Amino acid sequence: MPNRAHDEPILKVRDAVRRFGDRTVFRGVTFSVRSGSCCAIVGSNGAGKSTLLRCIVGRDRLDDGRITIGGKDIDESSARFRSEVAAVIGNAATFAHLTVHEHLQLVATAHGATQPAALATTVLEAVGLTHAADHLPAVLSSGQWRRLMLASAFVRPRRLLVLDEPEQHLDHAGREWLSAALRQEKQSGTAVVLVSHDAALVSAVADTTVDGDAWR
């Protein structure tokens, strides 16, 4: 698929404000992300970066401002929204008695994949977890668990991929793999928004950066 980085932005954040009581978490946040490009949100802990990601995917709400994806307001209950946005924010739940492969099949089926088993196999190979396909998620190492969470996003349809510190728990080889995977996402036309503290990852994949420390 050709890179469509010059198209109308997939994600637009305009004058976003979020408060918790008397505390302003962030304010005046404005940026956009186009297809085939990556925006990295950087800054110190407590700057509100993860809160902003939750607002982007509909798990939290703004107090003021607007976020649109594909020109539409955020609606996590919309089938259109779920077909366009895949995210890894925190640790998603898994079923205790489903294997890694079965978990990915379930996610793929829930999002309309026509051949969920084949897709799960392909994605497990891509994320380096083929050897763990028949394992239960509970026995995975922290690095393997992170790869499973990313795989759960990669079996979903997406125009926008939203990731909160995806490098967590990955060793050097894992971070190299992640960098390559995100570059492939961009090449396929997916827009990527990520929060990261890994300067090397940001340098390798980000086309633009947003400084969370400027929001306070």
From TrEMBL:
Record bears the keyword ATP-binding: yes
Residues in ABC transporter domain copies: 11-214
Keyword terms: ATP-binding, Nucleotide-binding, Transport
GO molecular function, one term: ATP binding
Gene3D superfamilies: P-loop containing nucleotide triphosphate hydrolases (3.40.50.300)
Highest taxon of source: Bacteria
SUPFAM superfamilies (alphabetical): P-loop containing nucleoside triphosphate hydrolases
Family note: Belongs to the ABC transporter superfamily.
PANTHER family tied to this protein: ABC TRANSPORTER, ATP-BINDING PROTEIN
Protein name as catalogued: ABC transporter ATP-binding protein
Organism: Nocardia uniformis
Species lineage: Bacteria, Bacillati, Actinomycetota, Actinomycetes, Mycobacteriales
